[in-house]
Amino acid sequence: MKLSVPIYQLKRKAKLLARIDDIPLHQALDRIAREQGYTGWSLLAAQHEQPPSATSVLSRLTEGDLVLLGARPGHGKTMLGLRLLLDAVRVGRTATFFTLEYTEQESRRRIHSLSAGTELGDKIEIVTSDEISADYIMRHMSDSPRGAVAVIDYLQILDQKRSKPALSEQVPVLRDFARAAGIVLAFISQVDRSFDPDMKALPDMKDIRLPNPIDLKLFTKACFLHDGEARFQEVA
Predict the structure, then answer these.
(1) What gap in Å lies between CA 109 and CA 195, rounded to an integer?
(2) Bridge partners of 127?
(3) Under a CB-based contact definition with an 8 Å cutoff, are residues 26 and 14 in contact?
(4) Each residue's pLDDT tens digit, 178-219
């Protein structure tokens, strides 16, 4: 389906709409996508945006890495995470998507939009339990082979329930588990709305939204996205 205008113009229109109607940017993006004939921005972006290559990201990851995939809403962080999982299964690695944000049906729809014409998406395990936390992830992946890749959607709501440990307690445990098990854990992460693209082209570690403080040096690598551009970096 052809867009009425280039995608960068649609993004600008969504930002203006968000300010005028005082709504979150992701809602404005979805509204613009529906005007273009799509059910949501993620499906529009999957067909028309050229995100950073997940293959290039996967090739830079090593066993035991703890990774951040950070961006503002609508700038491709979830899409990058799902492409990372698709590339993992493409080379024979186990891939799991833990999500506290989407239903299994929504997740499958997004994955299939990225893997049209192949059966790769069916090989990704999707976990949507409300109990997702560090302990849950470790129990679930305790038998995973070395090199397995998991994407957690998303960092900031891991400790939303009062019954779960603080994020500052969960991340160090997951870091140690990833190292010992030889698996890769990638966390989709929100970027604070104070990030100003007029001041710098891409967000960085200082822009990660932290409602509850954690030591970001626990992460080993990060990839930040904005307006189709990306920066991959070593953290430690």
Answers:
(1) 30
(2) 98
(3) no
(4) 999 999 999 999 999 999 988 898 999 999 999 888 999 999
